[in-house]
Structure to design on (680 residues):
């Protein structure tokens, strides 16, 4: 199988995924959205397997090939997370993100051949990036929830269920974040010689992790409720600096994590 | 902000006292920095780091006898640990914003350099907060291990994993050695260069049998024939040569790859033939169509190499179509490794595929960038890190803890004062 057959798999998969996201909200019959989500993921996975056999090597060498895995794992891990936690938005988010990456490969076919430099050619690349995308989603949701709770606190009626939601979502996001960092560390040992070199991106990841640790530990106690909630948007800003801002920081010129010219 | 009225420094200590103590640590750190200079990690190397590490563990064990005191409760409790994490966070932000120096300029006397903030990882303030964090986290772990409860498995994975990780990477940093070795094809080398450019002899030697590089097909781009700058200037557009997608477009020219030769040599009539030999260069025959005038022509384009001239397809009087340098797809060194008395191992070393020899790891590092695949040497990074197994134990425990976090979330209800 080659990229020429991509549309035959991508379009049915996208239809299934989007269908799953929509029916998740429209109907209480969860088996419909579950079946659609699984079906879409299996169809998309079949293309990856086919391409693997067709090219006689794991499809991990170009940006386009990497995107296949993003779609696949976002759908798969997103679905498992949704099944466990039962928040419908998780299903919708996973379906949407999987669709976005699948569509980029449809509309920008030239990126199929955008080359990966040798350091990026690793089995760690895809899981390292995928779990980060998922952690951003969880932390993004926690920011929205934190603002809702802050406004409720302002009116003097704290929502205890919302607290539980925030706690859970931050735990899930933090779990993904730490897994991403640890996989990055193991990969860095193989690629760059050391598991932690205080590269600017690593430094900011450390800062972000520390900020979420402050939240996770402070919310164990009932003091300083507003400060604790404000930690979530603050930590999210730090997360965005780690993700995007590092490319623009003067202190980060020469970072080995910057791949664009 | 305290729930009961009490004055500062009266037990139980909370955030005020904790934050003051962390600020105190940082001030002591800055004072040390100004008086004795930066932390010299070479001094902490084996065996001193073993002594310090054993001392810490011994302290934690003895300190556990005082675990019912209010001081112990505070030292291992949430407000102090949050304050320590906050201290690391602030010092981390300093590290993230102030450019960090590999080597200090001995003539720099600005405030950041004097306080050690241009090299935060060897700044006393950072090292002290890191050290006390290890003690605080360690005493919490000891306290919770004494009243062990298997239902707290996620707690143990996360905290013990993180503690081992911080302990082994911190103390191990003093033993870490990283050197670069350059080996010419057909030769054997045991001398390496340190970060400071010193030449050292290692107990390991490497023989380089062959250096091989595979390249991606290059890209085409339009340049200004006078300045040589790729167009549009500042945000150049490229066409990736790929025989599966022969058609493309740059500006107002449609391109169609008619023939691509990765290892080409120029003939006398300015065409190219495939000849796999050193100095061969990628060359492409492109059909170029001006979409405005409809005129089209075919032309060879070639990037050139150390042995051959480049070839450009002229588009207008000012613009031309050229080929970029091919980017490496993979590069590989066929090596044999010897210790002082025997042949140890042989390998095809690649990026992402290091070779482990005892406590040493050997990495494919670089090659002659100008010669590219014609490079007659290969360089290797030699990394010595005896603490690595402990670090991996920490990573595995911490990863298991993360999975537990994701699975169980916060099942426990928010608690009152303790922990």
């Amino acid at each position: 199988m080659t990229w020429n057959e991509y549309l035959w798999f991508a379009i049915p998969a996208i239809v299934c995924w989007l269908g799953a996201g929509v029916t998740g909200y429209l109907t209480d019959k969860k088996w419909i959205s579950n079946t659609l989500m699984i079906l879409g993921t299996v169809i998309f996975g079949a293309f990856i397997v086919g391409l693997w056999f067709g090219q006689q090597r794991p499809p991990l060498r170009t940006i386009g090939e990497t995107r296949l895995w993003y779609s696949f794992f976002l759908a798969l891990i997103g679905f498992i997370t949704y099944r466990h936690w039962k928040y419908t938005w998780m299903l919708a988010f996973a379906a949407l993100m999987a669709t976005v990456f699948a569509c980029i490969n449809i509309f920008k076919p030239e990126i199929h051949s955008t080359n990966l430099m040798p350091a990026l050619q690793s089995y760690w690349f895809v899981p390292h990036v995928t779990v980060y995308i998922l952690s951003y989603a969880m932390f993004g949701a926690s920011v929205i929830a934190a603002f809702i709770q802050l406004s409720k606190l302002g009116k003097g009626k704290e929502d205890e269920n919302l607290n539980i939601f925030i706690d859970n979502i931050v735990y899930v996001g933090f779990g993904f974040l730490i897994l991403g960092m640890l996989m990055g560390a193991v990969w860095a040992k193989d690629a760059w010689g050391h598991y932690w070199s205080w590269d600017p991106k690593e430094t900011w990841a450390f800062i972000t992790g520390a900020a979420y640790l402050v939240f996770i530990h402070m919310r164990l106690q009932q003091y300083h409720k507003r400060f604790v909630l404000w930690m979530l948007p603050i930590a999210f800003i730090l997360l965005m600096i780690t993700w995007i801002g590092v490319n623009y920081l003067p202190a980060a010129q020469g970072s080995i994590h910057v791949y664009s010219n | 902000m305290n729930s009961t009225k009490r004055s500062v420094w009266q037990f139980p200590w909370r955030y005020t006292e904790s934050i003051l103590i962390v600020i105190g640590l940082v001030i002591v750190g800055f004072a040390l920095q100004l008086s004795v200079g930066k932390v010299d990690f070479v001094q902490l190397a084996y065996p001193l780091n073993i002594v310090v590490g054993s001392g810490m563990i011994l302290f934690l064990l003895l300190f556990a006898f005082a675990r019912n005191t209010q001081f112990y409760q505070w030292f291992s409790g949430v407000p102090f640990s949050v304050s320590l994490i906050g201290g690391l966070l602030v010092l981390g932000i300093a590290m993230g914003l102030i450019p960090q120096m590999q080597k200090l300029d001995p003539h720099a006397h600005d405030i950041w350099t004097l306080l050690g903030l241009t090299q935060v990882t060897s700044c006393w303030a950072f090292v002290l907060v890191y050290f006390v964090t290890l003690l605080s986290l360690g005493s919490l772990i000891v306290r919770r291990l004494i009243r062990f409860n298997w239902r707290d498995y996620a707690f143990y994975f996360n905290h013990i994993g993180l503690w081992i990780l911080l302990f082994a990477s911190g103390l191990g940093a003093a033993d870490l050695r990283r050197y670069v070795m350059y080996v010419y094809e057909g030769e054997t080398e045991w001398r390496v260069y340190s970060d400071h450019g010193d030449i050292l002899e290692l107990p390991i030697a490497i023989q380089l049998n062959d250096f091989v590089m595979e390249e991606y097909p290059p890209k085409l781009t339009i340049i200004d024939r006078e300045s040589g700058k790729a167009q549009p200037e500042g945000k150049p557009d490229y066409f990736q040569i790929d025989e599966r997608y022969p058609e493309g477009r740059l500006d107002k020219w449609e391109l169609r790859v008619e023939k691509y030769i990765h290892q080409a040599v120029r003939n006398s009539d300015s065409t190219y033939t495939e000849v796999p030999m050193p100095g061969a260069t990628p060359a492409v025959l492109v059909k170029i169509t001006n979409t405005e005038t409809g005129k089209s022509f075919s032309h060879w384009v070639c990037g050139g190499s150390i042995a051959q001239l480049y070839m450009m397809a002229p588009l207008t009087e000012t613009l031309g179509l050229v080929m970029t340098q091919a980017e490496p797809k993979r590069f590989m060194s066929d090596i044999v490794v010897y210790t002082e008395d025997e042949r140890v191992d042989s390998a095809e070393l690649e990026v992402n595929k290091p070779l482990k020899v005892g406590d040493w790891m050997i990495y494919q590092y670089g090659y002659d960038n100008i010669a590219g695949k014609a490079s007659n040497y290969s360089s290797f990074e030699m990394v010595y890190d005896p603490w690595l197994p402990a670090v991996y134990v920490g990573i595995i425990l911490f990863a298991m803890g993360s999975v537990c976090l994701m699975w169980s979330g916060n099942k426990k209800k928010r608690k009152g004062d303790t922990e």
